């Protein structure tokens, strides 16, 4: 295949999640509590086993290494291997991103080439429509 991202042509019945966390602006003052981080890991590991295809921690600040050191012992070894730390200056930056995404669809802020920024309201509306297909009964 000619540099086709792993997600292209995926059978959605066995879909995996590619989680991208942008740490721009992250600090110890606005970080979620340790309990929240541990609970998030627990949810992924215990309720969605093997659903995590990859996790990109993008632009992690230097101080994040200490935070990572505190939470990494709680991560399942298989999950741990799927977590990538990546910044725009890393030598493997384009290689890692292009193995997961079509860079022209990934916004600039996350290392892609798309000038279109993520629009939460548009995403929310699209997800609500998609949810109706799977759960036609409205609550």
Question: In a nutshell, what does this entry contain?
Answer:
This protein is an alpha/beta fold. It contains five helices and three strands, in the order βαβααβαα.
Keyword list:
single chain, 139 residues, alpha/beta
Helix content: 25-40%
**N/C terminus separation:** 44 Å
What kind of oligomer do you see? single chain
Strand order of the largest sheet: 1-2-3
Q: Any low-confidence stretches, pLDDT <50, length ≥5?
A: none
**Overall outline:** globular
Protein name: CRAL-TRIO domain-containing protein
Domain CRAL-TRIO: 1-118
Pfam family, one: CRAL_TRIO
GO molecular function: phosphatidylinositol transfer activity
Write the layout of secondary structure elements.
Layout: E1 17-22, H1 34-47, E2 52-58, H2 64-71, H3 77-80, E3 83-86, H4 93-100, H5 120-134
Parallel strand pairs: 1-2, 2-3
Describe what this molecule looks like in 3D.
The chain has helices at 34-47, 64-71, 77-80, 93-100, 120-134; strands at residues 17-22, 52-58, 83-86. The chain is α/β, with parallel strands linked by helices and 139 residues long. Helices cover 35% and strands 12% of the residues. It is built from five helices and three strands; from the N terminus they run βαβααβαα. A three-stranded parallel sheet has the order 1-2-3, covered by helices on one side.
């Amino acid at each position: 295949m000619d540099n086709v991202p792993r997600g292209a042509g995926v059978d959605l019945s066995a879909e995996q999640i590619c989680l991208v966390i942008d740490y721009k602006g992250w600090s110890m003052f606005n970080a979620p509590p340790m309990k929240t981080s541990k609970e998030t890991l627990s949810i992924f590991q215990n309720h969605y086993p093997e659903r995590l295809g990859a996790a990109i921690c993008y632009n992690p600040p230097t101080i994040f290494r200490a935070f990572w050191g505190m939470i990494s012992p709680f991560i399942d070894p298989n999950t741990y291997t799927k977590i990538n730390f990546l910044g725009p200056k890393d030598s493997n930056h384009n290689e890692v991103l292009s193995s997961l995404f079509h860079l022209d669809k990934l916004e600039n802020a996350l290392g892609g080439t798309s000038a279109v920024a993520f629009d939460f309201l548009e995403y929310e509306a699209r997800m609500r429509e998609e949810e109706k297909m799977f759960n036609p009964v409205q609550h």
